[in-house]
């Protein structure tokens, strides 16, 4: 029997009923308060260094009755291992009987993500301001996280961008639109530091959220524009005079996003579909009556231009920290998506394998366009690390604001770790003397940076109280050997 062709429409979420009610009824707990329960005031192993300063600034933006809990949660997340649920964060942070207050704090963080981002942006501005002649580079992309259960708010079926051998084209969970700042490290190449993320909710789920929250449907393009306006306004308020360059993949190359960005004064660099609708330059005659033409009469076929074997030029550009050679064609065209002229670059990866990119600034060089496009891949590396290392999406919270808080906390911890270790050399970040088979010139990973910070936290907590004694060296040596296994 012939197999039925799979439908391109997303499947519907199916769940079984909840088996038993929760054993922690909040109303019953409030009716019978326990005066002897232990309250958590500080983390069992507190933060240190620049991270402690930045997290303290973030906690000051919350209500003082709950703000002191933010450093405790982040310290616990730094030390947590295994499956990184919110409960594992609380356990490693030393949370006692008032654990319910920490879950409530997550909801407050989710509602105030924009204000909590400010200390991070201020620190980046003071450290990396490119000046009036420079530019800030931002990357926009979305990433889904798998969730389980029928009572996870705002979760539904989404497209799976990276299906594995055992995965399908769709997954059940949340989808996040993320904004990251792309910075170039002098030693370790390009890095994407996440600043803020928004939760994309499908239109079929809006009515469910409206019953509890004031939630309106917004497309991914609208969410991306809101994120960019928040960061643009913050940097301008801080006094930055640098230009803005925004890079994203072809899925975001839409009029609803590109034209507002151009109106904000930003330059957009993105990939084009092979069948994109482009026109040549308009031929406006001098003295011609009427409004001058904005688009040319002749449509440009990218496939035909790439198919011609003449006109290709060689170029060497920096692709993810490595000098790469390639062949390109470039020309200026007009696009209705942009509303004017664009610089088009056709890059040939192999014979017959090519891709098209555009910049809304026609004067932008080909090398700068290709380097910006290659730098966009750093946000994909961030998505990998924030899920594999920080366990984004594994926190097992069901409230929509708690889910937003956990995802943004994972992204902020990624940025905090990278900024803490920015000025350190490879020798200071990782010691491979116990791994002779490892490549000594390999770039330190994000795990190496996080491990160094957790070791410093443990050292400052357990060795500061060690008094001078004849066997102090032996004790320190034993402790360092223990850290090698624990962190």
From TrEMBL:
It comes from the Bacteria. Residues 70-300 form the Transposase IS701-like DDE domain. Residues 1-44 are annotated as: Disordered. InterPro entries: IS701-like_DDE_dom (IPR038721), RNaseH-like_sf (IPR012337). This is Transposase DDE domain protein. It comes from Stieleria magnilauensis.
């Amino acid at each position: 029997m012939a197999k039925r062709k799979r439908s391109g429409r997303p499947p519907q979420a199916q769940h079984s009923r909840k088996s038993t009610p929760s054993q922690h009824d909040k109303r019953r707990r409030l009716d019978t308060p326990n005066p002897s329960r232990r309250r958590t005031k500080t983390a069992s192993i507190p933060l240190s260094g620049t991270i402690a300063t930045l997290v303290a600034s973030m906690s000051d933006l919350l209500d003082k009755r709950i703000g002191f809990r933010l450093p405790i949660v982040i310290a616990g997340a730094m030390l947590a291992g295994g499956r990184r649920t919110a409960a594992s964060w609380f356990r490693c942070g030393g949370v006692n009987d008032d654990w319910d207050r920490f879950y409530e704090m997550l909801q407050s963080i989710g509602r105030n993500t924009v204000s909590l981002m400010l200390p991070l942006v201020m620190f980046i501005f003071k450290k990396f301001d490119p000046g009036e002649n420079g530019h800030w580079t931002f990357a926009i992309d979305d990433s889904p996280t798998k969730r389980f259960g029928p009572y996870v708010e705002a979760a539904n079926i989404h497209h799976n961008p990276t299906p594995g051998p055992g995965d399908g084209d769709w997954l059940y969970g949340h989808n996040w639109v993320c904004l990251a700042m792309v910075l170039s490290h002098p030693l370790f190449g390009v890095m994407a530091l996440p600043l803020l993320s928004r939760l994309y909710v499908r239109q079929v789920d809006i009515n469910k959220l409206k019953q509890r929250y004031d939630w309106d449907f917004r497309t991914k393009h609208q969410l991306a524009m809101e994120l960019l306006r928040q960061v643009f306004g913050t940097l301008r308020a801080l006094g930055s005079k640098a230009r803005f360059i925004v890079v994203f993949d072809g899925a975001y190359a839409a009029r609803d996003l590109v034209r507002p960005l151009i109106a904000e004064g930003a330059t957009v660099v993105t990939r084009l579909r092979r069948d994109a609708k482009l026109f040549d330059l308009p031929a406006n005659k001098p003295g011609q009556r009427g409004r001058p033409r904005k688009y040319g009469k002749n449509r440009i076929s990218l496939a035909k231009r790439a198919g011609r074997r003449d006109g290709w030029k060689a170029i060497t550009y920096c692709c993810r920290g490595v000098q790469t050679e390639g062949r390109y064609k470039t020309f200026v065209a007009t696009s209705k998506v942009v509303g004017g002229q664009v610089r088009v670059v056709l890059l040939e990866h192999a014979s017959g394998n090519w891709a098209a990119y555009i910049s809304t600034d026609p004067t932008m060089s080909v090398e700068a366009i290709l380097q910006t496009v290659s730098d966009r891949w750093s946000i994909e590396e961030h998505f990998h690390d924030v899920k594999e290392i920080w366990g984004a999406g594994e926190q097992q919270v069901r409230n929509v604001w708690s889910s937003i808080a956990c995802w943004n906390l994972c992204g902020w911890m990624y940025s905090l770790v990278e900024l803490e270790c920015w000025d350190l050399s490879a020798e200071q970040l990782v010691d491979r003397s116990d791994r002779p088979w490892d490549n000594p010139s390999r770039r330190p990973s994000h795990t190496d940076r996080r491990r160094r910070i957790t070791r410093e936290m443990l050292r400052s907590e357990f060795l500061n109280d060690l008094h001078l004694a004849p066997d102090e060296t032996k004790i320190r040596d034993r402790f360092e050997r223990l850290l090698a296994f624990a962190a």
